[in-house]
Amino acid sequence: MLELVDVSRRFGADASHWAIRDVSLQVAAGELIALVGESGSGKTTLLRLINRLLDPDRGEVRIAGRDVRGQDPVALRRTIGYVIQGAGLLPHLSAADNIALVPRLLGWPRAEIAARVDELLALVGLPAAEYRQRFADQLSGGQRQRVGVARALAARPRILLLDEPLGALDAITRASLQGELARIHRELGLTTVLVTHDVAEAAALADRVVVLRAGEIQQIATPRALLSAPAEGYVSELVAVVRAQIARLHALRSPEEARP
Question: DSSP letters of 53-113?
């Protein structure tokens, strides 16, 4: 469904900084890939290359075998769902109107749009009768993020891009929405690319994890393989942090809890 072939992108006044360098990646239809790495590793740049908010300096991004540069960027983006941290809802529009944005631009009939809005609000756990007319400042952070997911799904995209969608949420809301995102991904058969700083979140949600550093792929592996056999260097250090956190939590357990 999605393929990056030797993709590179430079930034800076003299175009000397490689944000992404020689990245190749294949994502199967229905797969959920997580991109992890430190700030500045190129995770968000990769997402922006997929939906043509940026174009590569070299290499190709292909969707269903077609180079995205051969497609109109606006039309392309309307076929790809995109969720950012904080949801990015338009504050002067209701939840329903935020969700309806792309279908309206595509010229859907009014009745079809209304039905789709109600369907999506139900999908993300927000009953339409209660939430369709609420504005962003009348929603909690988790509710805003749910509306953002519904908006990304409005035009029935094949691909969903998630850029740190849960990073600003409290731990309980974040855990709840992780489960909701996994369920929606499975139910709709989406091809999903998730950006996260949280290795544990990536391991819990993804079919495969892609570790980036300084714009280059350090390792691509299933969560189990990543945690059991991390590549030497940066990936090993990253996994060691997760293992240390788990060990500290186990150390806090009482003797009664630790018994099998």
Answer: SS--SEEEEEETTEEGGGS-HHHHHTTEEEEETTTT--TTSBHHHHHTHHHHHTT--HHHH
CA nearest to 204, candidates 169, 242, 252: 242
Find out whether 161 and 83 touch, Cβ atoms under 8 Å. Answer: yes
Taking CA atoms, 217 is separated from 9, 11, 160, 223, in Å, by 14, 18, 21, 16
User: What are phi and psi for residue 66, nearest 5 degrees?
Assistant: -105, 135
pLDDT single digits (tens) 142-200: 899 999 999 999 999 999 999 988 877 888 888 888 888 999 999 999 999 999 988 98
Written as one letter, the residue type at 146 is R
CB 35 within 8 A of CB 50: no
**What is the sign of the dihedral through the CA atoms of 117, 144, 130 and 177?**
positive
What residues contact 203, with CB distance under 8 A and at least 6 apart?
Answer: 34, 209, 223, 226, 227, 242
Helices and strands, number each (H, E), in the chain? 12, 10
Record the pTM.
0.90
Please choose, from the candidates 165, 157, 143, 148, the residue with its C-alpha nearest in 3D space to the C-alpha of residue 103. Answer: 157
Tokens linked to 105: 């631009």
